[in-house]
Amino acid sequence: MSQKNYQDELIPAFTPLLAIKEASRCLLCHDAPCSQSCPAQTDPGKFIRSIYFRNFKGAAETIRENNALGAVCARVCPTEKLCQRGCTRSGIDKPIDIARLQRFVTDFEQQTAMRIYQPGRKDKGKVAIVGAGPAGLQASVTLCNLGYEVTIFEKEAQPGGWLRHGIPEFRLPQSVLDHEIARIIAMGVNIQCHSEVGTTLTLAQLKAEYRAVLLTVGLSQGLTLPLFNDAGSVEIAVDFLQRASKANGNIAVPQSALIVGGGDVAMDVASTLKLLGCESVTCVAREELAAFPASEKEFATAQALGVSIIDGFTPIAVTGNKVTFRHVRLPGELTLAAGHIILAVGQRAGLEAFPDITSQRNTVETQHYQTTDPVLFAAGDIIQGDKTVVYAVKTGKEAAQSIHHYLEEACSC
Ligand SMILES: Cc1cc2nc3c(=O)[nH]c(=O)nc-3n(C[C@H](O)[C@H](O)[C@H](O)COP(=O)(O)OP(=O)(O)OC[C@H]3O[C@@H](n4cnc5c(N)ncnc54)[C@H](O)[C@@H]3O)c2cc1C
Ligand code: SF4
User: How is the chain split into domains, by residue range?
Assistant: First the structure.
């Protein structure tokens, strides 16, 4: 991989000719398996057909009808597990590069200043959303289109959730996220930042003012491992990524780093460290390669940047900055030392502000997105299911529809 910077998007965009060439590889399947495998129903079968016929505007309309974060998903979806998995073209050579085509169309939409979303009617009453990550943002668009006046309360200084300070700039430029959010604000959605429910304002206040409240607070706290409590220089992965993102990559990096974990977050930390100049980056995962949790793209990027990835080892002892690992299946042990240790072992929700809702092991219990409190709904990472952006979009959209059905029924009683 040639010299790259933290701020440069690593995967290049398609030109119009390359996009049409890629779209022309599509076999135009009846009941397209790609469309059936997209959780957010972004309908790649349909938008690829539009690209093929040079109808880029129609392609953008198809994407936006179903996915308010189409430009983000185009950059971060683990497509090999989703839309591209069932692509019929795989039987001939390789699957269509759906994500890059989606990126081409949404870039075209932005470059030509298309305005697909129109301001909402706001004649159905007020709904509050807590958390401006992808689930809350998508829900706000669906509710707005259904006629509700929507306010999102966000504790941070800027909206976006993990899209803002989790996923690094070289995979998702902040400008792409800013444009997605600007489109949503232009529809009339009100986003109030610096508003943490539980401190700045209470859930009871929201319930008194709004017809329904949707919780999309995500898994905002990084987990640690007790084994590392007394280790030398240890940091939680999402704290490191936030620190790097808020400083635009202007942070001091150690000469060597050891990352514990093998998911997308671990790969993001590893690639970020490499791009910022850390000489030796080693990532140790408990999963073996056949069941590696990181997406193919993330894994390939980290490897291309020179990260050493060791699979199938779990930490058993820590002394200062030395960690001993044992193989999960075989008798082998391994001791590694590094200037800085970063733990990428998962995240948890902070639900202390919502003591009355039933939650178990990091998950809010819901029935059709409704919690045990009938005016309180939940979506995104805090409910059961996949923890990806495209799933947050799906659940945000479906939760908004569920709120609408509930409020319509409440009106007709
Ligand atoms: C480093 C990293 C890399 C990732 N990479 C990928 C990837 O490549 N592909 C992919 O599909 N997924 C990826 N994910 C997962 C993806 O980002 C999440 O699944 C998704 O962001 C979940 O969306 P959400 O809206 O449920 O929550 P979040 O994105 O967590 O947003 C929740 C929002 O709620 C706010 N909030 C929390 N509590 C309160 C409160 N009390 N009051 C007001 N606001 C509050 C938070 O500040 C935040 O803005 C990654 C995650 C991380 C951390
Ligand atoms: S939203 Fe994601 S999963 Fe769906 S078609 Fe687009 S890239 Fe594929």
Answer: 16-111, 126-220+349-412, 222-347
Mean pLDDT of the region 191-197: 97
Exposed e or buried b per residue across 73-93, where buried means at least 16 C-beta atoms within 10 angstroms of its C-beta = bbbbbbbeebbbeebeeeeee
3-class secondary-structure state, position 136? helix
Average pLDDT over residues 382-393: 96
Nearest CA to ligand 1 atom 4: 167
Q: What local confidence, expressed as pLDDT, does residue 3 receive?
A: 56
List beta partners, residue 122: none
pLDDT digits (tens, 9 = 90+) for 28-51: 998 999 999 999 999 999 999 999
Query: In CATH, which superfamily holds the domain spanning 222-347?
Result: FAD/NAD(P)-binding domain (3.50.50.60)
Distance 131 CA to ligand 2 centre (A): 23
pLDDT at 7: 75
- Exposure string (b/e) for 13-36, b if CB count within 10 Å is 16 or more? ebeeeebbebbebbeeeeebbbbe
Domains 126-220+349-412 and 222-347 share a fold: yes
| Ligand 1 site residues, Cβ closer than 6 angstroms | 76-77, 130-136, 153-156, 161-162, 166-167, 196-198, 216-220, 238, 241, 264-265, 268, 350, 353, 380-381, 387-390, 392
CATH no. of 16-111 = 1.10.1060.10
Contact 407, 143 (CB under 8 A): no
Give yes or no for residue 253 having a pLDDT over 70.
yes
Please determine, for residue 1, whether its predicted confidence score (pLDDT) is greater than 70: no
Which CATH number is 126-220+349-412 given? 3.50.50.60
Nearest-CA residue for atom 17 of ligand 1: 162
The mean pLDDT of 112-141, rounded to a whole number, is: 95
